[in-house]
Design a protein that fits this description.
Blueprint (H helix, E strand, L loop, with lengths): L13 H7 L25 H30 L1
């Protein structure tokens, strides 16, 4: 028997990280309102993809640099 069940089909395991493990989480959208997300005609524009990659690279860089400190401060 699973200890945790997903609350939505295709959902991410945010409950595990945030509620069970007590870790901070962040959600970063990578689309725009007219992208028809999860529809048969779902799409992304090339400039949105490029900007999203830049944002995520910067976020991962910052988390790698300051992630341990931020986690300690969150738990304090």
């Amino acid at each position: 028997k699973p200890a945790l069940l997903p609350n939505l089909g295709g959902s991410l395991p945010n409950d595990v990280f945030a509620e069970v493990l007590g870790l901070p989480t962040v959600w970063v959208p990578h689309s725009y309102p007219a992208c028809s997300q999860h529809a048969p005609d779902e799409h992304l524009l090339a400039p949105v993809v490029k900007e999203s990659l830049q944002i995520m690279a910067g976020l991962f860089w910052d988390l790698g640099t300051d992630g341990a400190r931020l986690t300690r401060e969150h738990r304090a």
